[in-house]
TrEMBL record:
Pfam families: ABC2_membrane (PF01061). One of its GO terms (molecular function) is ABC-type transporter activity. PANTHER family: NODULATION PROTEIN J. Signal peptide: none annotated. Residues 14-214 form the ABC-2 type transporter transmembrane domain. One of its GO terms (cellular component) is membrane. The chain crosses the membrane at residues 25-46, 58-79, 115-136, 142-163, 175-196, 229-247. It comes from the Bacteria. This is ABC-2 type transport system permease protein. It is found in: Membrane. Keywords: Membrane, Transmembrane, Transmembrane helix. The lineage of its organism: Bacteria, Bacillati, Actinomycetota, Actinomycetes, Pseudonocardiales. It is a multi-pass membrane protein.
Length: 264
């Protein structure tokens, strides 16, 4: 466990330095964060055009939480980037599981997503007349973090499969978070979809966590909120398990046929 935590810490430190080379507080605020805020505002304005404050509330809350998923799934690009840089074999040789090495390097983007989503949650609702149950609304960022962890596990799982098809990384990234935004209750209720699609949404990250946040903001029963959060964590754990198995299979296959350093 000590080696796992040490590798996780060092992976986070390395990625933090790389992230600082890409962003300053100005570029993150005025380029990345502003873009995400405008996206959330766009959907809220759709609700306003429909002439329904209820629609404004629904669309804005959903897209405030979805902001986090965009950053959390960037782990797909990071994993493929290691293979293209020729450092995959070095990461596999780390004194911990290879999954730990990948998880550590992506945590910066998870933190960025949770920060962006929290800032949006604190700034945008008053602009669109969305009532929040203060001071209890201060617990919402904690729920956003839990949803973010689930989405991060989902992104890691996708990355494990995309490693064998590096050229598909951008398609995989865009499809990954668009599937969440489409089917997890961000813009339309999950009950909108046919029965079999509705059943599949229960295994997607954000579905249960977003439902918990909506229930909490609406003043719903606490057991329902905690139950949905529990399901969200269970879904994240399931995606993490599949990711661990997929990474292990990819590494064993790469060692066997010599393709672990392939960067195509």
């Amino acid at each position: 466990m000590r080696d796992q935590l040490r590798v996780l810490r060092h992976g986070l430190a390395v990625q933090w330095r790389m992230w600082r080379g890409l962003h300053t507080w100005r570029t993150w605020t005025f380029a990345w964060l502003s873009r995400l805020l405008v996206q959330a505002c766009f959907y809220a304005l759709v609700g306003r055009m429909l002439g329904s404050q209820e629609q404004v509330d629904y669309l804005l809350i959903g897209n405030l939480v979805a902001i986090m998923a965009i950053d959390a799934t960037v782990v797909i690009l990071l994993a493929v980037g290691e293979r293209q840089a020729g450092t995959l074999a070095l990461m596999v040789a780390a004194p911990a599981t290879h999954l730990t090495a990948y998880l550590g390097k992506g945590l910066v983007h998870l933190g960025s997503g949770v920060a962006a989503s929290t800032i949006a949650f604190l700034t945008l609702p008053p602009l669109f007349g969305v009532a929040l149950p203060w001071p209890w609304a201060g617990f919402v960022p904690v729920m956003i973090f839990l949803v973010g962890v689930s989405c991060y596990c989902y992104g890691t799982c996708v990355a494990a499969f995309v490693l064998r098809f590096p050229s598909a990384r951008w398609v995989a990234l865009n499809l990954s978070y668009l599937v969440i935004m489409t089917f997890s209750g961000v813009n339309v209720p999950t009950s909108f979809w046919p029965g079999w699609v509705h059943a599949l949404t229960s295994v997607l990250p954000m579905t249960h966590g977003l439902a918990a946040i909506r229930t909490f903001i609406a003043g719903g029963p606490l057991p329902g909120v905690l139950g949905n959060l529990g399901w969200e964590l269970a879904v994240g754990a399931a995606w993490f398990t599949v990711a661990a198995l997929a990474f292990d299979r990819m590494v064993r296959h790469g060692r066997r046929d010599g393709t672990i350093e392939f960067a195509g």
